[in-house]
Amino acid sequence: MSEHKRDTYGILAEFTETPAFYEAVGKVKDAGYKKFDCFTPFPVHGLDGQMGIGRSKVPIFTAIGGVTGFCTGMLITWYMNGFNYPLIVGGKPFWSPIFPFPIMYELTILLAAFGTLFGMFATNLLPRHNHPVFEYEDYIKCGDDTFFLVIEKADPKFDLEQTLAFVESLGSTKVEVLKA
Amino acid sequence: MAEISPDMSFAATDAASREQLLAKVKPVDVPRKELVTGDKDFHWVTEKICGIPESKTPRWWWVCFCVAGCMATFTLFGLVWLVSTGVGVWGLANPINWGWAIVNFVFWIGIGHAGTLISAILCLLRQKWRVSINRAAEAMTIFAVVCAGIFPLFHVGRVWFAWWLFPLPNANWIWPQFRSPLEWDVFAVSTYGTVSVLFWYMGLIPDLGTMRDRAFKAGKLIKAWAYGAFAMGWRQSNRHWSNYEMAYLLLAGLSTPLVLSVHTIVSFDFAASQLPGWHTTIFPPYFVAGAIFSGFGMVLTLMLPLRALFGLHNLITQYHIDCMCKIILATGSMVGYAYMMEFFIAWYGANPYEGFAFINRALGQYAWSYYIMVGCNVITPHLFWFKKVRENTALVWIICGFVNVGMWFERFVITVTSLANDFLPSSWGYYSPTIIDIFTFFGTFGLFSVLFLLFIRFLPMMPMGEIKAVMKAGDAHGHGTGTQAVPHSTTGGGHH
């Protein structure tokens, strides 16, 4: 995209120390910003609370997967061994929930695991191979040893001058206006 | 939930009452081990771990790869010979209709268990030392399951009909028989393999993102594209990490009952039969303990050479080796206990066939294998009681070799001795493997090594994010000083 069409995406601040970064994130939340994000080389313990992010929704997907797996196990064992082609083996009943329990157990775990992985993708809106933050020249550093704090332009409180002044007061090592 | 009265709260509001509380409780200083030694910072971790797949392929890698590739062809040869000739090329004959195939299957599945144990159970137990070894151990799990799968797949003889094991309608509209433990195995092992891959892949995503960015920066676009395709556009955002951590915890929670169930179900192959020596209730926990025992043996067998070759001494410290040795000691003791308990129950149960099966194991025609098993599994792990032994890396490596040999013989003893001398002396026999049996098994070590070598060549061997999170500098509450990792203070407690 040509340079003149590029719009401001947000303001990015770099931090190199975990505690300083952690404090700064709390200040951003307290200042009332909603649309901001942190980019960290590792999951920082307690940062979710500091950012005001609620509990993850991934368990819902896990539960749906698990229940589906269990019911699938019930259904296939009943249909195959009890209904469609009943066989008597060792005088056992055509179908009971006991003898094929390992099947239901394993399918519960299998589909719950798929639900978890795809739930993680769904809640994170992945795959998404492009994002404005990738445009930042030093983006590679957030996979290494630097923490980024990005306040997006989409935030209702965003004002280029005021927000810039606010971010500069947070004690970061570098502040930059991010174009996208 | 009942309301908590204010005086039950431990959040002492003012400093004075906090002091009072501490004087009352008298907290003891618990020294915490450093998990990354040598005052390293985050950047060092990234460079060290990414540096291995990014650097030029070392010569020893090519040598090992060629040797392992040649070994792997033995499996290929054995399988081609089997399929083109028939299962008769294996040493199976009445009454021993299960021989090396099932022994090797149980052995390889067991090897895999340590990987899932490290990534799942130790995660739930908050054992932070797991982070530097879990990636490689999970890879080991997957490759071990691949090797394990070969044997039951080909023991059916006409391997092109193996799909009859899946719940699909076959030509005669006959469905799988879900009362059979062998059918449970199909579900257990395929679920185990699949969930292990999912778990491993999800753990890799953040690191693949880092590899992608580094390859892109270095101008290696094909590499960047390949890593990027699998990284799914991961961008280290905390909103991602939040869901990722929840998903990771859930997968750990799902894998824990899974790893325990897999070897339990494998043991049902034996325990659900009526044969003396197999039909015992101790099998599920005994098999699981044995699997973890042999799995940790294999983790150390692989990790100690890698630690030396890549200079990972700051990441895999003596503390890590100690922890693993202690797990081997604990599970080895459980296995030894199970051997004793089997004998006790055989006597106490007063079943003459059961009693004979166990006396025959120790004194009969397979006594040699029984004593190899007892020697390797009961005696050698007890050397790990001694700190001097745990600190001697070469000795640890040798002992782990014994553990692996011993556990293979355990499966051999269980499978073959019970079948060889069952109820009727007129139908007794003696089993020996053929050269094809030996080739096929020997080759799986090559296959395993090929896969593992490819893994260490192309993927980051350790989860960088998780390692950084357990470093002192990763603590958000200022217990470290910035990105510089400082030695841990001796005061335990504090946060989390």
Automatic annotation (TrEMBL), chain A:
Pfam families: ActD (PF11821)
Domain of life of the organism encoding this protein: Bacteria
Annotated TM spans: 60-79, 99-122
Keywords associated with the record: Membrane, Transmembrane, Transmembrane helix
Name of the protein this chain belongs to: DUF3341 domain-containing protein
